[in-house]
TrEMBL record:
<dbReference type="InterPro" id="IPR050430">
    <property type="entry name" value="Peptidase_S1"/>
</dbReference>
<keyword id="KW-1015">Disulfide bond</keyword>
<dbReference type="GO" id="GO:0005576">
    <property type="term" value="C:extracellular region"/>
</dbReference>
<dbReference type="Pfam" id="PF00089">
    <property type="entry name" value="Trypsin"/>
</dbReference>
<feature type="domain" description="Peptidase S1">
    <location>
        <begin position="35"/>
        <end position="257"/>
    </location>
</feature>
<protein>
    <recommendedName>
        <fullName>trypsin</fullName>
        <ecNumber>3.4.21.4</ecNumber>
    </recommendedName>
</protein>
<feature type="signal peptide">
    <location>
        <begin position="1"/>
        <end position="18"/>
    </location>
</feature>
<dbReference type="InterPro" id="IPR001254">
    <property type="entry name" value="Trypsin_dom"/>
</dbReference>
<dbReference type="InterPro" id="IPR009003">
    <property type="entry name" value="Peptidase_S1_PA"/>
</dbReference>
<keyword id="KW-0964">Secreted</keyword>
<keyword id="KW-0732">Signal</keyword>
<dbReference type="InterPro" id="IPR043504">
    <property type="entry name" value="Peptidase_S1_PA_chymotrypsin"/>
</dbReference>
<dbReference type="GO" id="GO:0004252">
    <property type="term" value="F:serine-type endopeptidase activity"/>
</dbReference>
<dbReference type="InterPro" id="IPR018114">
    <property type="entry name" value="TRYPSIN_HIS"/>
</dbReference>
<comment type="similarity">
    <text>Belongs to the peptidase S1 family.</text>
</comment>
<keyword id="KW-0720">Serine protease</keyword>
<dbReference type="InterPro" id="IPR033116">
    <property type="entry name" value="TRYPSIN_SER"/>
</dbReference>
């Protein structure tokens, strides 16, 4: 069986839980929570970062703000989730202080999401009210250009900083480099399939995503290129796998248009390229 943020012990592969709201998952299922080997992100440095929280309190996945009413995350975070059971918190780098919580009106999981092989792991959330932008709250531009090997990327999240471990209070950041599709497939040969709608990033053993980072944004020069999907926990020297945003732009645009044409107008408007804090 494949897994979302694959947890591998010896030769056994386990799957992360589909969501906090599903039925009790099979034995061994776990969910990524924090970045391993990263550093504390400066306050206000990633205004697009979203914390998805059960009842608005307990963080379970990351996400990104892409319009005042639209949030992007991983399908495995919200598959079969009821919107009334969780909220999106923006505007803070701390889990235990600050921020504004917004109710979720609708969840749209990619219709071809497959949790057995972890493909099409992408979902869109629509907020009940318009998110108010400011110094610490802003949308991220979505990437629609190919990613080359060795490009500098940055991952942010509240995932555990060790495995096993506890969630950090502070948002963490980690600088990564992209690798090729062929390199990623080879690295995960015999573990789980890697698809051309996914991308992979790596630095070295001891640095990578972990439980709770799922659904969070992978960014290149102020544009989101990936959504945290799965990996071998945590930071074992294998590349982490992300849903490739570029591959889903048409699906994203159609989903936004089907809900409200104004979403699409905002998504496609020219934005000023913003470099993330180093």
């Amino acid at each position: 069986m494949a897994c979302v943020f694959l947890i591998v012990f010896s030769s056994v592969v386990f799957t992360a839980s589909a969501s906090l709201f599903s039925s009790v998952p099979s034995e061994g299922r776990q969910q990524w929570e924090r970045i391993v080997g990263g550093t504390k992100a400066p306050n206000g440095s990633y205004p697009y970062q979203v914390s998805l929280r059960f009842w608005g309190v307990w963080h379970f996945c990351g996400a990104s703000l892409v319009t005042p009413r639209v949030i992007l995350t991983a399908a495995h975070c919200v598959d079969r989730a009821k919107p009334e059971y969780f909220k999106a918190v923006v505007g803070t780098n701390q889990l235990r202080a600050g921020g504004t919580a917004y109710d979720i009106r609708k969840v749209v999981v990619h219709e071809q999401y497959d949790d057995d092989v972890i493909v099409n792991d992408i979902a869109i959330l629509f907020t009940e009210e318009e998110v108010q932008f400011g110094k610490t709250v802003d949308a991220i531009e979505l990437n629609d250009e190919p990613l080359q090997k060795g490009e500098e990327l940055i991952l942010t999240g509240w995932g555990t900083t060790s495995y096993p471990g506890k969630l950090p209070n502070d948002l963490m950041q980690l600088h990564l480099k992209s690798i090729t599709y062929e390199e990623c497939k080879s690295a995960h040969d015999g573990v789980n399939a890697v698809f051309d709608t996914q991308l992979c990033a790596l630095t070295r053993e001891g640095e990578g995503a972990c439980h709770g980072d799922s659904g969070g944004p992978l960014v290149r020069e102020g544009r989101q290129v990936g959504v945290v999907s799965w990996g071998i926990p945590c930071a074992r020297g294998k590349p982490d796998v992300y849903t490739r945003v570029e591959s889903y732009m048409r699906w994203i645009e159609k989903t936004l248009y089907d809900d409200d044409e104004d979403h699409l107008k905002y998504l496609n408007r020219p934005k000023t390229r913003r470099l993330d804090a180093m």
